[in-house]
Amino acid sequence: MRAREHTMRPRPLELVTTRAMFPDRAAAGRALARLLVAYRNRPGVIVLGLAHAGVPVAREVADYLGAPIGVVVARKVGVPGIEEVALGAVAEGSHRVIADSIAWYLGVPQRIVDRLMERERVELERRAARYRAALRSFDLRARTVIIVDDGLATGATMRAAIRSVRDGRPARIIAAVPVAALPSAEEVRGEVDELVVVSTPARFNAISASYESYAPVSDDDVVALAGQPGRRASPYVRDMSDQLGAALTRRDAHERPVERTICVPAFDATVVGELGVPHVSRLATRWARRSGVRGLVILGGDVRGGRSGYAERYLAGRLRLSGYATLRVDLFTREEQGAGVDKPDALRYADLERAAARLAGVCEWAEREGVAGAHRTILAGAGTGASAVLMTAAQRTGQTFAVAVRGARVDFAPVALQKITAPTLFVVGADEERARPGYSDGIDRLSRNAVLVRIPRAGHSFEEPGALGAAVEHTVGWLGRLDARKRDADPFDA
Hints:
The protein is 36% helix and 20% strand. By secondary structure, it is α/β, with parallel strands linked by helices.
């Protein structure tokens, strides 16, 4: 894979809106098939659908071309907390692809990349074993192989699949997709004999945005589609909903989202949040202590980006990898966020007090409802959200296990700093400190329970390459050390 120039922020993190181009995958497959007409009824052609989502598209292509259909298995490795953005991919054999620019920009440690790759390879091998047992296998030597997926975002999964297919020594490899991000299409083009794409929109967000209906595809669906002899014997092709029905509305257990949206009555408003638990904690909440959940980290959203900014999502995902349950909440309503986007410094102290009261209400709700990890509540936030976190921690003396804030505007909550008794981590950008004298005044004068970490070459929002990853790793490591000290002091509470 060609190394991508590290001169700008990777495009997959840009949130834009793309108008749907296809009603569903079947329609996309028909549009794609028309571009492959040169291979119709040609001997030696085989179509391989990239499982799962590429198989419905591949079915249409294979039927149109009159070619046999098979399956190639590759797994996207998503960024923790931002799973729709590919950190890399794994495929059958020893093949793996890392989207270097994403890992570089976020600052994802290599050990975390390796861990995620291994986890996905276990699932890949499970899928491959099932498909090989249920479906016909093909000798790819000297054949023309058309690899089909439902789209290219980063292209990592397709590149991993291409390298896996190349082991079969085909004469020619063609990658074919209905939609692709232009930079990813260019990278894939360099690894195949031909790339066929229906559309490369100028503004690309996610593959799903190109489809009006983007229903999930299960293992059973893959076997049913790839095992069909052709269109006339295919109820799915005649009417997708008749055959798959409920199957397309469900997700396999391993595909279920790790976060779910909740609404929590808190003080003067109902706040919206995303509650997520690590895989080991899929048990009844009353067994939270035994399930391996190390604590519940409640992340208070900043007035600028709320709970859904990629920085908060990545931090939450990384925390879950380390065994913490997470709850990302919006402390400010949409109207309040809209008023504060351009002038966050104009926020009144009363606004922060209200946000802090809401956060305290969320904490009480989590304890009352027995949310996994709520026996050890940790508060985290960034920017103006960090000020509300500090104020809440000052109010909940003795009820908060730890506080971790990033890019904290301590001048918004000067009184609260003197009242906090819980261990507190302040992560600040060194460049921001130099640009704004007095930015972290007061932090160094706190008790020995407070730790100040300066991230080199980082501003207040940690958008510089590697800065966010460094801040996140400091946070996770610091919490781990606190947890270890707690276990040593009171092993029955761990």
